[in-house]
Amino acid sequence: xxxxxxxxxxxxxVAGDGSLLSGGIGWVVDGFIxxxxxxxxxxPSSNSATAPAMPVFVAQSTGDDLVLVQGVDPMVDxxxxxxxxxxxxxYDVGPVLTKxxxxxxxxxxxxxxxxxxxxxxxxxGRESQSDCTA
Length: 134
Description:
3 strands, 6 helices, alpha/beta, globular, single chain, 3-stranded parallel sheet
């Protein structure tokens, strides 16, 4: 399960600048370091363009003010193109109190409900229904 995965570290740095998460810019720098050729061997980061080998649930709010949807959409597309089984939920939420993280948190509520249901289905042996098209 991945909720608002920071697929594009550059977007995360831009969105975080001047926000309540400004202190988190260090995470972005650490992510860039991990994205080097040596770090990619150890990191499951989407920046390595390696698709997950197991079914994955990805949730993203379109109004997320910290993790931008325009970074997550291409990541999901890359994973689907590589044959991954991805259940992708985009929650259409407009901008709310930009640069406060509110838009980031709003998407969490439906993602938790759907994500836990998705996990329960996997643990009960039900096949996932990928949103990837062939």
